[in-house]
């Protein structure tokens, strides 16, 4: 049996077998936090020096060593070793190689339990600002397109059936609202991420006179956790991130589904740029909206990451348990998935062509103006229920005869109701029906312009 040379090896007579060691190690993935681990250690050692817990000279030597490691990391020169288990022990052993035994003083008044939590808070805080920034960009893309298409008419759907004509700009602004709420959720997520666990030590705090407010401030956190057990066991900030990311992916999947439909031969509402489309290896004519499909598909892995961590956390007693090492890959994967998906979706929106004529024409040969006829009668005093009945019967008559409400003769209209006059034809035009839906938040052009103006104010 191998001797035990681990940083924690003192009380062991034997070492782990290689395959067992590999099972327990996290360095293959937690090296993504190397920069944050070093940053946290720099804050910690600065505080150890300032409080006199270690000599200032020693603190300076350790800090200089850590800064050297950071520079080497940024140049891709740090080599990690699985026998050092995780990023924390890898950095400590690289530091020892760099500056000698004094490196051993860095871990005074600290545990890997508060260290790993600190790294995760730093990682997620930086990812959250990236996500919020990218979402602002996506929201801007939607506003830009909506601004160009206030007057573009499209069929509005319920049950995937033509319901009432709407402004394409209005449809896009619905997604703007969804992504704005997503952004607000991530902003709130920052509040629970912007807290420093450092100094909670293993679980109970420490006897050393540490200054947790100082380390929190040095790392740019708003404050330290107020309970040491909570500090090392809390993964709510990650769960919130995964939940927020799941809702975001759900929103993106809805828009992607619509884009996929709009690109089909049946709709032909939009044409994606070649730069965001792919072909088929067998069917030469194909132009597929693969990127939209892939975003829709990737919702699965993000939901999976949420359910995965919820399950890890369920029933987990306080404080640190090794189960918590399972919190990382799903968080990294989610952060990497959503940041690229947001960019791809924005890129698709920025470059797609809207076939506005075809979109508008598809509302001319349908019954999506039927509500308008019923409203016309109701506005002239007929109870809406009676108007609904009359129009319903007329739709049936038209369907049997093979024409639409705008094709019905004035004579026939006046037989049906003497309330109908020749302005009915103007009333039934899609453009008119959209224009007149001017209730607050409705699809009326003035309302869409109002929403766009609000959005522009929000985006600054
Ligand atoms: N690699 C560990 C993790 O990710 C670091 C904390 C280890 N702490 C411990 N007591 N084993 O959770």
From TrEMBL:
Q: Which UniProt keywords apply?
A: Amino-acid biosynthesis, Arginine biosynthesis, Cytoplasm, Lyase
* Pathway(s) the chain acts in: Amino-acid biosynthesis; L-arginine biosynthesis; L-arginine from L-ornithine and carbamoyl phosphate: step 3/3
Q: Tell me which EC number(s) this protein carries.
A: 4.3.2.1
Reaction catalyzed: 2-(N(omega)-L-arginino)succinate = fumarate + L-arginine
What are the Fumarate lyase N-terminal domain coordinates in residue numbering?
10-304
Q: Where is the Argininosuccinate lyase C-terminal domain?
A: 367-435
List, alphabetically, the Gene3D superfamilies matched.
Fumarase/aspartase (C-terminal domain), Fumarase/aspartase (Central domain), Fumarase/aspartase (N-terminal domain)
* PROSITE patterns, sorted: FUMARATE_LYASES
Record InterPro entries: Arg_succ_lyase_C, Argininosuccinate_lyase, Fumarase/histidase_N, Fumarate_lyase_CS, Fumarate_lyase_fam, Fumarate_lyase_N, L-Aspartase-like
Q: What is its main location?
A: cytoplasm
Pfam families, alphabetized: ASL_C2 (PF14698), Lyase_1 (PF00206)
Where in or outside the cell it occurs: the entry states: Cytoplasm
Keyword Cytoplasm included in the entry's annotation: yes
Similarity annotation:
Belongs to the lyase 1 family. Argininosuccinate lyase subfamily.
Name recorded for this polypeptide = Argininosuccinate lyase
